[in-house]
């Protein structure tokens, strides 16, 4: 059964999540290779990347999804580097728990029959961020299209509301 159409940004988010899982699997595979005794032949970074992508393509329902893994990124992650997803999460205005609370509140308001508009959501988040960040939070707020991006990022939970 084909996947329903999604926006370009949602498709990029899905691809990014898939790549993050694949990189985690590739790091584990490379660690296994590095733990082998020196007498055995070890697979290199490029080989591990190609194997993980082939495994993914044989087990997925969407084998046409073009996913590639970079061996340099794999090496950086193996050495303890941060993934791009973790780096971007560190720059977010809201923590993961705060985002979950905002989602719960949006769902609750919708169940009560008062769904929040994008501007109302943005006002509420600006209030939360101002309360917990103080003067470090800019007076302009979270951003022009922040609410739309937030709803799209969490569309799997907010699609009915």
UniProtKB/TrEMBL annotation:
The molecular function terms of the Gene Ontology recorded here are: DNA binding
Domain named HTH CENPB-type is located at 86-160
Q: Which Pfam families match?
A: HTH_Tnp_Tc5
Which organism encodes this protein? Coprinopsis marcescibilis
Q: Which UniProt keywords apply?
A: DNA-binding
The name this protein goes by in its record? HTH CENPB-type domain-containing protein
């Amino acid at each position: 059964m084909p996947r329903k159409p999604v926006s370009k940004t949602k498709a990029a988010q899905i691809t990014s999540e898939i790549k993050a899982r694949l990189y985690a699997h590739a790091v584990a595979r490379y660690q296994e290779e590095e733990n082998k005794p020196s007498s055995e032949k070890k697979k290199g970074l490029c080989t591990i990347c190609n194997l993980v992508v082939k495994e993914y393509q044989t087990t997925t329902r969407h084998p046409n999804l073009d996913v590639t893994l970079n061996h340099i990124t794999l090496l950086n992650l193996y050495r303890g580097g941060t993934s791009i997803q973790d780096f971007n999460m560190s720059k977010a205005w809201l923590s993961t728990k705060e985002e979950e609370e905002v989602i719960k509140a949006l769902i609750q308001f919708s169940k009560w029959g008062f769904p929040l508009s994008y501007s109302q959501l943005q006002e509420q988040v600006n209030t939360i961020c101002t309360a917990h960040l103080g003067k470090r939070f800019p007076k302009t707020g979270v951003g022009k299209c922040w609410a739309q991006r937030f709803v799209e990022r969490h569309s799997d939970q907010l699609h009915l509301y």
